[in-house]
Design brief:
- The longest helix has 13 residues.
- A hairpin with a 4-residue loop joins strand 1 and strand 2.
- It is built from 2 helices and 4 strands.
- The protein has a single domain, classed as DNA Polymerase III, Chain A, domain 2 (Roll).
- The chain has a 4-stranded antiparallel β-sheet.
- The mean pLDDT is 82.
- The chain is globular and about 50 Å long.
- By secondary structure, it is an alpha+beta fold.
- It holds the Pfam family Rad9.
Length: 99
C-alpha cells in the first residue's frame, strides 16, 4: 500500500496542506478541495482534484463502511516514505470521526 500511495502523492504540489482519503467498498479516492468561507458564511469551492483507485491496486482492501479521513499532506508523505524505506507494509484502520 505504501508504494502505491507514494507513487500517487509524489506529484502533488508541496503547497497543498491537506488531502482527504475517501473509501468505499468499490473505490479508494484521494482528493483535494479548497473551500473558502466568505464573510456572509457562504462557502466557495476553489480548486478540486481527485485520484480514484480500484481495490485491486492494493494487496488487501476491506472496507466495512464508507469513510473519509483527512491528513496533513507533508506528514502523510513522510510516513509513506518511511514505510517504503524500511520495507514495511502500511495498513490503515479507521472507522469514525475523531475530535
Amino acid at each position: 500500500m505504501s508504494k502505491t500511495l507514494q507513487e500517487l502523492t509524489a506529484h502533488f504540489p508541496p503547497k497543498w496542506d491537506e488531502i482527504t482519503i475517501c473509501v468505499t467498498k468499490d473505490q479508494f479516492i484521494i482528493k483535494k478541495c479548497d473551500e473558502i468561507v466568505r464573510d456572509d458564511d457562504s462557502v466557495a469551492v476553489g480548486m478540486n482534484f481527485q485520484v480514484v483507485c480500484e481495490p485491486r491496486e492494493f494487496l488487501s482492501y476491506d472496507i466495512q463502511y464508507q469513510s473519509d479521513i483527512t491528513f496533513c499532506l507533508r506528514e502523510f508523505k513522510f510516513l509513506l516514505g518511511l514505510a517504503d524505506l524500511l520495507n514495511l507494509p502500511m495498513t490503515m484502520y479507521f472507522d469514525s470521526r475523531g475530535r
